[in-house]
Every structure is written in structure tokens, then in C-alpha cells.
Amino acid sequence: MARYAGSKLLHLATVAMGLGFANSQQASNFDVPTEVAESHSCDVVCQQIIAQMNVLDLGTFGTNFDFDFYATAANLSESKPGDLLKLLPRSNSSAISNAPEGVTAYKFQYTSAALDGTPVPVTGLIALPPATNDSRSNLVAFAHGTTGLYRGCAPSTYTQLFNDDGWPRAVAAGYAVVVSDFAGLGNNYTEHLYLSKAQANDVYYSVLAAQKAFPQRLSQQWVSLGHSQGGGAIWQLSEHKLVQDASSGYLGGVAVAPPTKLSDQFQSTLRSLQSNSSTAEEIQTFLTTIPPTTLGLQRYFPGYYDAPLLTEKVKQRIELASIGQLCLYALGGLMLDLTPNDVFLSLSNTDDSQMQKFQALNSPAQGDPARKPLLVIHGSADILVSPESSKASFDASCGYGNILHRTVYVGRDHGSVLKDSSTEWIQFIADRFAGKDFGSKCTESVVGGTGL
Question: Is the dihedral of CA 13, 319, 285, 228 positive or negative?
Fold first, then answer.
């Protein structure tokens, strides 16, 4: 395989980062030299797309990364999962000039646990509603969707923190919210293990650390909410052994548009491509998921650098993601000028044993108990994560004796469903803190149409 050795990739990434640091504290989406791009099968059109997508990413994550704060805390080795390592207000920053009146925001660093239990540093955000004199603020843990796989792609660095249809709605409803960046985003002590169960650990321990940061302000009981990648993390969290007992304070969670069984959905989409039953939009959307999925599997299984389904051209392009430290838009942009035949060696070959193994090790709804309520929400028009995939996992989890509710929002896509379902998930959160009964059997409903 024609590729740069690891040391060469590191050198090129360092060069690109150096170019960015010359004018700012930029941590992502660096310009890649033309000769490097061309050597990775990225021609003029590809380079133009990446440049355009870099503008979008940097508009989201900014060019004023706080390297001192996001550096690993000196006391990490003395800490345990759930410990608070750093806390810094963002309230006086122009970056959150769009914050609702009376809301304060802090970025923090805490200790989480890697998949093997090893302590790892993770960063995130804590948002507090206006203080009241008579009670604590009820706490919601939010798990975000895909933002990228590199340190500069952390949600806590957003230039406009409250321009979001997810957790800011919970803050507006009076809840305190803790948002984990997930390990590897913001702080780079370890790599971000995309879609793995590590994200469930990060959500759980973010709550413990936030409660230590504000012991008089935050409730001991808490509810979780997640969208897309974060929705999958919340489903994983619902089966986590640490939240099955009442002592955890966990009351239940909401998984919006959650990816569950990665391999099953991947193979299903490939079969659709083979039968020519996919629309142009569906094809393009699917192809943009190839870089983050491949990088995630490479980090989980180092041998996956020889991804069996992909062409050499695509493997080379994906290497540019690490060189340029590309976040969400540019990462997907690596595929925007390609066709399925450019990407896959053969559309008739869907067998990827390592992806299947990843699914077996990280997917929810495989028999583990979920003793607290779980609400699953999906849009019928979601072409990024198929509603059929969450339906299959819903049925499986119910078959194992867990109690879930699933709501399908007709006509809503992957992004819009989070906002358009907010009335339901805010009510779900309120019901959990009020101790309302969730029922004793699995149920389903449809909003905006009929049929499931």
C-alpha cells in the first residue's frame, strides 16, 4: 500500500499545524500543501471542496483555541474517574454573547475512564440557568453528535455556544446541562474512539465531575439526552452497569436519531447501492460517513488501516484528515466529488469482519439490562441513520425485557428531528424528575402521520 509512514504523517501534520499557529491559535482544519494533497489522490476539485469546508468548520470551532486549558491537567495521575481537574468560566467571553440572560457557562476538564478502565482526561462544558434561592438546578447530561475526530473539533470550543437546537433548549427550560466533549476532542491525551462505548463512560463521569464543581447548585439525580453519535452513547449509557442502581441518581435518557448497529446498517446501505435503489442525496450522505467510520475503526483496530472494502484512492484521502486535522464538514468533504465506484472495491462485497466485531463489542440492545426509562426518537426522513436501524434495536431491547418508548416523527430528517421533538423530550425529562411512571411495557407512537 502506498502510504506515508507514521513518522512522515506526523511530520506533515506538524508542518500544517505550524502554518496555522503562525497567525492564530488554530487547532483544526489546517491548509494542506498542494503537493501533499496531490500525493493523497486529492486533485484540484478535491482541494477546492476541502478549502470551502474548512471555512465552515472554522466558523464553528474558531481559531482561538485555548491550548493551556485543554492541555492535560498536571494532577491527572493522582485522580480517579469522576474527579474535577480544571474549571474556567466562559461567561465573560464574547464567544458566548448569544447566551440567554442570566445563564453562565464554564468549560471544565475531568477524569473519565477508557474502555479498559484507565483514567483519561476529558473536557466539556457546564451551563447553568439563572440561580434560584429555593432549590438546586436539575441536571441533564448531553451527548453531542459527530463533530470530528481531532482535538480542535470539541463542542466546548464553539464560537456560538447557544446557537443549537439541542441542549440550549434544556437550559432555556430551566435545567443545568453538562456536555462532554468526549475523550480525544479538546484534550488529546488519547484518541477519540468514535462510536465506541467509551462515550458512555465520558457522559457518566462528566456528571460526577460537574456535581463536584457545583455541589450546591446541581441535583444529585440526573437525566441524559443525546443526538446522533450522542444518541448512540445514551443508549449505551442506559445499559451501563454504573447506572442500573438507584445510588447513581440516574433517572433515564433520550436517544435521538441514534446509530446502533454500525455493521448492519453499513451492509444494508451497500446492498441498496448495489441494487440502484438509493437516491443521489442518500448516496452522497452515506459517502460522507466513510472517513469518520474508517478512522474510528482504525483507532479501535490498528490493523484496519487495510480497510478491506475501500479503494486505495479513498484510503489515501482519509489520511489527509489527520494531516489537516479536519473537523466535520471537511472530513465528509473528502468524499463529495466521488462516486460509490470510486470509494468501494466492489459493491457486491459487504463482508467486513472487523466492523462486525466492533458492532458486537460496542452496540447496545444485545441483551444487557436497562432498568431506567429510555425514550428513542427518530425522523422518518433520516437518510444518515435509518429509522429501520433504531426500530430493529428497539425490538431487540424490548425482547430482552427492557422498557422503552419509541417515537417516529414523520418527514423529519437527521438534524431537524432534535429540534422538532424537543417538546416531547423536555416533557420526558420533567416527568423523570417528577417521578412519573414510565409504564411497564414497550410502546411506540408516530407524530405527524400514521403507521410505524
Answer: negative
Q: How far apart are CA 123 and CA 35, in angstroms?
A: 35
Region(s) of the chain under CATH 3.40.50.1820: 67-261+363-447
pLDDT tens digit sequence for 26-60:
999 999 999 999 999 999 999 999 999 999 999 99
Cell of 74: 498536571
What own/partner pairs with CB < 8 Å and gap ≥ 24 does 22-25 have? 24/63, 24/64, 25/63, 25/64, 25/65, 25/66, 25/67
pLDDT lower than 70: segments of the chain: 1-24, 91-98, 133-134, 449-452
Pairing of strands 176-180, 84-89: unpaired
Cell of 363: 452496540
CATH architecture of the domain formed by 67-261+363-447: 3-Layer(aba) Sandwich (3.40)
Cα gap 442→403, rounded to integer Å: 5
Between CA 188 and CA 191 the distance in angstroms is 6
